[in-house]
Every structure is written in C-alpha cells, then in structure tokens.
Design brief:
mainly beta; single chain; 146 residues; 47% strand; eight-stranded antiparallel β-barrel
Amino acid sequence: MAITEKRLIDEYFKVEDIDNAGQFFKRVSRIKAKSKSGEVDMELDVNVDIYPMEKGGEYRVSIVRSLGDYQMDQGKYKPEFAQMKTEMDKFQYAMYGRVFKILKDQNKMISVFVSFGGLILKLSGKSEELDKFQDDHRVYLLMRKG
C-alpha cells in the first residue's frame, strides 16, 4: 500500500439542517452541512448526547489518516494516544472509522461514505480534496465548534 497524505480534508462547515427526516435514534442526529468553500456537502450522524450540534453553527471538520507523527495507523487502537499530544487535542469530538464506498459519476461528482461503528458520514462534491479518499482507508474524524 502506498503511503498517502495524512490529512484528507480540513474544512469549516455550516450546519444547514438537523434531523430533516426525523430523529430515528434517541442519542443520534443526522446533520446536513455545507463547507465554507461551497465545494463539499456533508451528512454526518453525531452522538448528540455527548456533542450537541446547533443549526446554523459553524464547525471545523478534519479527517486524517493518523493521529501520530505522520506514521500511518495500522487499523488498531493505540492506548498510548491517550498520553501523547496528538491532533485530537485540538478538537472536541472524535470518531474512528473506515471508508466503505466511493461513488464517482460522469459529471465528476464524488460521494465518499465512511462508517464510524454505525454512525455514517457522506461527503459529496467536485472538490479535489475528495479524490484523496480511498476504499478501506481507516480514518479519524475530528470536529470542534468553529
């Protein structure tokens, strides 16, 4: 496997809607957000019990391949991250998951799907940033209020 970039996306998103189709689970909400650049749309399931979201709120979202010093993770939890200064220290909410589907259409639109243990992320757009994602990548989603 070729070594790829550590940071896959780092954008500010504004929440446009929360639970548009209704809330299906007591502690989980699906947010719809648009990047400040306008190039990427995001739908994300968030555990609002531990990280409440606000409609109209702005959040920085960073998706990285590794929390360490540019060394790619091997898909295993590393307890030493709890004692180390990592990228995660700059954020309020973090999830670890796997890219399970990438769709590209004829209009050069890209949709990337990531599962974080059942919480789903969908990124859509023409952005060159989405080209960095690959099937079966293990990734960290880091988020904080902007």
